[in-house]
Amino acid sequence: MLKLPLDHLYRAAAPDTRAPWLLVLMHGVGSNEQDLFGLAGMVPPAFHVLSLRAPYTLGPGSYAWFQFGVNPDGSRTIDTAQEKASRALVAQTCAQAAQALQIPAERVVVGGFSQGGIMALSALLTEPQLLQAILVWHSRLLPEMAAEQVAPSQLAGRKAWISHGTADNVIPLAQAHAIRAALQAMPVDLSYHEYPCRHELHPQELQDSIAWLQALTGAQRV
């Protein structure tokens, strides 16, 4: 494993890759680094794959990027201190991993599912210099970090995959629509998709996501 601020699992890119990429993945609430690392075998061999463990322990093998509560009206209240600390750790981890692997920011993709996707979105909007693209499954945009977003012009050239389940029973589809509206107002190359599933990765969604990753490696900034 690499020496990084967050616990993780790592799969190296194929040794004959001329210009390797880095894919950093973050799990949802109550899971751990093993979860999305199970997808590593599907990720194109041009990618180093890094699956992170969130820093806050909920129970054995169960972690979160930040704790939250659900209000009677369905809105959520987050632990803003935990979110900010996690965001800083994610940025530090991405930067150190890219440096250790000699991957320029132009070949870094940060992604995640549910709360992990929240962290990826926040990374794009607050630390775009660290990455080229985000991969976000079944997630939402945090209003709490809006004041820390960079100017939209700093997002020029960045790419985003956003997908959601039409029957998501944890994060309503309306949240994905809100992400889509926000990113459409920015100079981001957005790929938005919906799938007939609940709060889980649909097989076609996963297949399409992997194809999108593969296409990135052929459309790299020079």
Automatic annotation (TrEMBL):
Belongs to the AB hydrolase superfamily. AB hydrolase 2 family. This is Alpha/beta hydrolase. Coiled coil: none annotated. SUPFAM superfamilies: alpha/beta-Hydrolases. It holds the Pfam family Abhydrolase_2. One of its GO terms (molecular function) is hydrolase activity. Keywords: Hydrolase. It comes from Comamonas sediminis. Residues 14-215 form the Phospholipase/carboxylesterase/thioesterase domain. InterPro entries: AB_hydrolase_fold (IPR029058), LYPA1-2/EST-like (IPR050565), PLipase/COase/thioEstase (IPR003140). It comes from the Bacteria.
